[in-house]
Amino acid sequence: MAQKNTSPLPAGTRVPVHVGVIMDGNGRWAKKRGLPRKIGHREGAQTFRAITRHAKNLGVKYFTVYAFSTENWKRPADEVEAIMDLFEKYLDEVRDFIEENIRICFIGDRSMLRERLQEKMRSVEEDSLNFTAMTLLIAINYGGRDEITHSVRQIAQKVKSGELSAEDITDDTINSFLYTSQLDGDIAPDVDLIIRPSGEQRLSNFLIWQSAYAEYYFTNILWPDFKPEDLEKAIIAYSDRNRRFGGV
Ligand code: FPP
User: Which residue CA neighbors atom 1 of ligand 1 most closely?
Assistant: First the structure.
């Protein structure tokens, strides 16, 4: 007997393999209600959980969220502190993703994060290593330029030691040293769809190498108000577009 199609997406929808989300608008969401910004981040973290689950249920294979950028350290210390506290709390709570067969990885320079947070990150990564339904990449202290610089530095070291010759450096070489290619046995493909809520229409240093051919979806909804149906809308919009990758 044919299996019933339980996906809420229309039949024939092309689901992107790799979706990236810039979780923007938490601060404005709180301000509109006269609440402290950290409450906006708390609500944003709830949305993050619900949308991650939904992405998996829709068949997305790699889901990358921009949680904290290399530029976010410029925020007031108490806000940075509140965001770091949230990460710690949520790393405990995301353990229930593990029951859903979701692998969790982190991208970014973690050396500047608190030791306890780094420890939790390592432990979540280890415990979810063999899960296959979807890979969730959480970008913390992540910047696209920083990632490329980090890759180039490693390549330069290999050239210096004679392991690699400069003529042999290709796109693939640079790609292979990006955080997204170093997922302990896995390589995330280029991102297909980038979603940015909150009305801003820019990339803000997110996956700048990996998004060379990405489609963008912008919406005015603030991240804490972003609903599973909004993810479906973004995927349907993506599916309706004609990607030519530079061809005709
Ligand atoms: C951007 O909104 C949001 C952030 C810098 C923090 C995002 C963090 C979370 C949603 C918590 C997620 C938790 C985990 C474990 C991944 P903004 O502050 O820039 O909003 P604004 O533009 O309205 O000021």
Answer: 24
Whether 40 is covered by a domain: the verdict is yes
Q: Which domain holds residue 196?
A: 18-145+191-236
Q: Report yes or no on 60 lying in a domain.
A: yes
Ligand 1 centroid, distance to 140 Cα (angstroms):
11
Instruction: Report CA-CA distances (Å) from 25 to 43, 48, 89, 116, 184.
Output: 11, 13, 21, 28, 32
- Split into its structural domains, the chain has a count of 1
Protein residues whose CB sits closer than 6 Å to any atom of ligand 1: 23-28, 41, 44-45, 48, 65, 67-68, 72, 83, 86-87, 90, 138, 198
CATH value at residue 93: 3.40.1180.10
Can you say whether the dihedral through the CA atoms of 115, 117, 122, 123 is positive or negative?
Answer: positive
Instruction: Find the 168 Cα to ligand 1 centroid distance in Å.
Output: 40
pLDDT of 89-101, one tens digit each?
988 887 777 778 9
To the question of pTM greater than 0.85 for the whole model, the response is: yes
